[in-house]
Write a structure and sequence with these properties.
8 helices, five-stranded mixed sheet, disordered N terminus, Trna Endonuclease, Chain: A, domain 1, alpha+beta, about 40% helix, five-stranded antiparallel sheet
C-alpha cells in the first residue's frame, strides 16, 4: 500500500515590530507590538497583530508613558488590518498616526506553514519581558493628575467635570488622545491635561502639535465650541533650560496655555465660579 505524503505549503509572510521610542536623541527603544501579514493584499491572506500585556519595561524607560494611548493604538491597528488593502498603506497610516513616539522596524520576510502558530512564537521572542518588582512610584504625569483631582474635589466641582474627553469625535476615527478633564460654559470648553516635563518634553510636543486639530474640530462641530486647553506641568521646573523653554513655547504657539500643579486650586476655584457650584 502506498502512503500518500501530504506536503505542507510554506506561506510567504512578512512581519515588523512596533518600538516605543520616548526620546529619539537617546535612541532608547523597547518592543511593544508585532504585526505579521501574508505577502500580497491584506484581505487575501493572514494578517494579525500582537501587543505586549506587560508595560513595566516601558515604564522603566519612560515613567510618564501614556499606556492608554498605546492600548488604543493596538485597537486602531487591528481595525486597520481589516480595512486597509495593502501593506504600504498600512505602514503609512501607522507612521502618520504614531510617528512621534513609535517607530517601525524594517520589514522582515519569513516562511511558515502555520502563521497563527508563528505569530505566537514571535510574540514570545520579541514581546515577552523579564519580571520587575511590582511596586513602582507613580509617574510625574500621574502625580499631576492626582493634584488636579484633589483640587477639583476640594472645590466641590469634581462631579461636574467631564473626564477623559476623547479627541476622536473632533479629529478622525482612531485618535487615541483623551484630555484629562474639562467643563463647558456656554460655547466655551475649558480643558486641563497633565503634562510632565520632568523626564522629557515629548508629551508636551505631542500635545502641542495635536491640539490645533482638536480645537478646529470643536469649532466646526454642531455646538461650535471654543476650545481652551491648559497644560498642567510639574512644579519646580528649571524654566530657563533650553528644552523646557522650547516645550512651553511650542505649547503656547499652538494655543495651549501652561500652568503648574501648584496653581490647580486657582483653576478649580475658577471652575467653581464658572459652574456656580
Amino acid at each position: 500500500m502506498l502512503a500518500a505524503v501530504a506536503m505542507s505549503k510554506q506561506r510567504e509572510l512578512e512581519f515588523f515590530l512596533l518600538q516605543y521610542v520616548p526620546n529619539v536623541l537617546r535612541q532608547e527603544r523597547v518592543n511593544i507590538g508585532l504585526v505579521m501579514i501574508e505577502s500580497g493584499e491584506l484581505n487575501q491572506g493572514f494578517a494579525d497583530a500582537r501587543f505586549t500585556r506587560e508595560w513595566k519595561r516601558v515604564r522603566c524607560m519612560d515613567p510618564d508613558v501614556d499606556v492608554e494611548m498605546l492600548e488604543a493604538m493596538e485597537r486602531d491597528i487591528r481595525q486597520q488590518l481589516t480595512t486597509v488593502q495593502d501593506r504600504g498603506t498600512l505602514l503609512s497610516k501607522i507612521q502618520e498616526s504614531f510617528s512621534n513616539l513609535v517607530e517601525l522596524s524594517p520589514t522582515m520576510a519569513y516562511q511558515a506553514e502555520d502563521p497563527q502558530k508563528e505569530i505566537e512564537e514571535m510574540a514570545s521572542v520579541y514581546l515577552d519581558v523579564p519580571r520587575y518588582p511590582s511596586q513602582m512610584l507613580p509617574s510625574g504625569r500621574q502625580r499631576i493628575v492626582r493634584r488636579m483631582e484633589e483640587a477639583f474635589q476640594q472645590a466641590g466641582v469634581w462631579e461636574l467635570m467631564t473626564k477623559k474627553i476623547a479627541a476622536e469625535p473632533y479629529t478622525r476615527k482612531g485618535d487615541p488622545l483623551k484630555i484629562d478633564f474639562g467643563y463647558r460654559v456656554g460655547t466655551r470648553m475649558k480643558m486641563f491635561h497633565a503634562v510632565s516635563l520632568a523626564a522629557n518634553i515629548d508629551q508636551a510636543i505631542t500635545l502641542a502639535y495635536r491640539y490645533p486639530k482638536v480645537a478646529d474640530g470643536m469649532s466646526k462641530g454642531p455646538d461650535q465650541l471654543v476650545a481652551e486647553l491648559t497644560a498642567v506641568v510639574d512644579d519646580d521646573l528649571r524654566w530657563e533650560e533650553a528644552d523646557i523653554d522650547f516645550a512651553v513655547t511650542t505649547l503656547k504657539e499652538n494655543g495651549v496655555q501652561v500652568g503648574t500643579a501648584a496653581e490647580m486650586p486657582l483653576y478649580a476655584a475658577e471652575a467653581k465660579r464658572d459652574l456656580r457650584a
